[in-house]
Amino acid sequence: MAYDPVSKRLFIAALGNGSLEVVDVEKGERIKSVGGLKEPQGVVYVPASKQVVVASGGDGTVRAFDAVTLEEVKKVTIGDDADNIRLDAERGELVVGYGDGGLAFLDPKTLETKGTVKLAGHPESFQIEPGTGRVFVNIPGGAVGGGGGVAVVDGPKRTVTTTWDLKVAGRNFPMALDTANKRLYVGCRRAAKLLVIDTTSGEVVASPDCVGDADDIFVDSKTGRLLVTGGDGPLNVFATNDLRTYSSVATLTTAPGARTALFVPESRTLFVAAPKRDGKDARILVYTIPD
C-alpha cells in the first residue's frame, strides 16, 4: 500500500484482483479500481511528480499513473516477477525487486533503468538507508545457506557488499529499518520470529517469537515500538528499553489472512488489508495507534 497525505488517498496493489484500488480515507470509500494489471505487488507514491507507480509480477512491468486522474502515463518492462518497489528520494531513484534475483534502479520521471544489481535469489522486502544509500534486501528461504539471508547492497555503486546469513530462522519476508538506532527488523515465517539485526555488525541481537505468516513491520519512531502484522493471528506490538531485549506489549485483533499493512505516523493510523474470507468482502481495517 501507498498513501498520498495531501489528497488523503490510499493506493492498494490488489494482487488477487489484478487491480490498483484507490480509497478516499476521509470518506472511507473506494473511489476507483484500475484494472488490467497482472499480479500487481508493489506500489509507491512519488510526491514530486504526483504519480503512483505499480510493479506487477505477472508481466514484469512497472507502470506510472497520474495520482489524480489515475490515467496511465508511463510503462516499462524490467523482468519477471516485479515485486516490491520503493522511492529513494535522496538519490532520485525508484528501486524495484524482480526476477530470480535482482534490483533495478529507475528514474522516477522516465522509468528509464539507471542500473541493476544481481542477487542470490528473488528479493522480498528491502529498505534503503538514508545518507549511505545502502539497501538491505530480504532473500528468503534456501537462497543463502540453509535458511534466509539479508543482502547488503551499495546502492550508488550497484554492488553487493556482504550477505548476512540468518541462522535463527528463514522465510524472511517483511523488513523495517531504524536508522537512528542502527537496527534492522526482519520478520520470518519459519520459525515465526522477529529478528533484530545490528546494521553495523550484522549480528542478530534478539529473536523474539512473533505472529505467524508475518508480512509487514513498522517502526513507530515516536514511541520506539514495533508493529508486526501477519496472516495467522493478531497484530503484535513490541517494545524495547535497550535495543537488545524485545517483548510483546500488546496485540490487536485483525482478521483471518489480514497481513499487508501501512503505517502513517503523521496521523497515527495503521491500515490493514483484510482479504475476502468467511463470507466477508475484502476491506481495509483502520486503527489509530496511541502515542
List the helices and strands and how they pair.
Layout: E1 2-4, E2 9-14, E3 19-24, E4 29-34, E5 40-46, E6 51-56, E7 61-66, E8 72-77, E9 85-88, E10 93-98, E11 102-106, E12 113-118, E13 126-128, E14 134-144, E15 147-154, E16 159-165, E17 170-178, E18 183-190, E19 192-198, E20 204-206, E21 214-220, E22 225-230, E23 235-240, E24 246-252, E25 261-264, E26 269-274, E27 283-288
What does this protein look like?
- Helices cover 0% and strands 57% of the residues.
- The chain has 291 residues and is mainly beta.
- A four-stranded antiparallel sheet has the order 1-2-3-4, with no helix packed on it. Strands 5-6-7-8 form a four-stranded antiparallel sheet, with no helix packed on it. Strands 9-10-11-12 form a four-stranded antiparallel sheet, with no helix packed on it.
- The chain is globular, with a radius of gyration of 18 Å.
- The model has no long low-confidence stretch (mean pLDDT 95).
Structural class: mainly beta
Looking at CATH, which topology of the largest domain would you report? Methylamine Dehydrogenase, Chain H
Would you list the SSEs in sequence order as H and E?
Answer: EEEEEEEEEEEEEEEEEEEEEEEEEEE
- Compute the CA-based radius of gyration: 18 Å
Provide the spatial order of strands within the biggest beta sheet.
1-2-3-4
Tell me the fraction of residues in β-strands, as a range: over 45%
CATH class of the largest domain: Mainly Beta
CATH homologous superfamily title of the largest domain: YVTN repeat-like/Quinoprotein amine dehydrogenase
Number of strands: 27
**Main sheet attributes: strand count, strand direction, barrel closure:** 4 strands, antiparallel
End-to-end span in angstroms? 23 Å
